[in-house]
Amino acid sequence: MEGISEVAKSKQQLIIEEWNGSSSTKLFKTATIFASPSLSIHRSGSRFTHVWSRVLQAFVPEGFPGSVTPDYVPFQVWDSLQGLSTYIRTMLSTQALLSAIGVGEKSATVIGATFQWFLRDLTGMLGGVLFTFYQGSNLDSNAKMWRLVADLMNDLGMLMDLLSPLFPSAFAFVVCLGSLSRSFTGVASGATRAALTQHFALQNNAADISAKEGSQETMATMIGMALGMLLARITMGNPFAIWFSFLFLTMFHMYANYRAVRCLSLNSLNFQRSSILLQQFMETDQGNI
């Protein structure tokens, strides 16, 4: 919200100040207008600072940092890094998958490639429904654990795609396994993200946090895809370089996920946390009547 208020008026000069901010963020002066015979505008602070604050509004929640929990920033940093490594590896696995389907080969048929892609997607959809049926009720109470499981299954899915060209006779089976793994990732990651968003929200701003997280993920996706395309081009035709890059990025991805989950300080109780509290309560003799 931008407001313009009159702060001083003299007989010959009118001074108007422009302020930027909102009801939940700190206000700061962006410009001062001197309405006199020689109209002049003096902008407070550097133009870069003003532009940077505008850009930042697209990536952080309104009222940041007071509107989120203290563990929001470290979690988002590590989460963005793990997402970046995922998108880079996606380009390598997609390149291998398209090669296995037969893109660019004269012997490949359109209907054959279409059927294989359809079978892959169908397996993933069915897997997502079954996973939701069996584990959907446990995702809220064990958000940290399922967050790690989701990314581990995503790593497994990309590994299956990268392995698919090595087993042409079992191609459909391998890619269906990969799609099944990623279907678990889609369900678990989306559900745990919703639970964590509620945890971060201190001012009933879960929707704003979710929207800004989407902007952060979009930026990480674009950077990751660009770097992935560059890496795919550099490693093209060199299996050793492809596998080395993939395994190195996978290890970094697992480490970043571990650090992201370790940053979280959830204040809700599940079975494990309740057991720890009850045990501590009994060991300190506070359970005696």
Automatic annotation (TrEMBL):
It holds the Pfam family UVB_sens_prot. Keywords: Membrane, Transmembrane, Transmembrane helix. Signal peptide: none annotated. Residues 49-284 form the Protein root UVB sensitive/RUS domain. One of its GO terms (cellular component) is membrane. It is found in: Membrane. The chain crosses the membrane at residues 240-258. The keyword Membrane applies. This is Protein root UVB sensitive/RUS domain-containing protein. The lineage of its organism: Eukaryota, Viridiplantae, Streptophyta, Embryophyta, Tracheophyta.
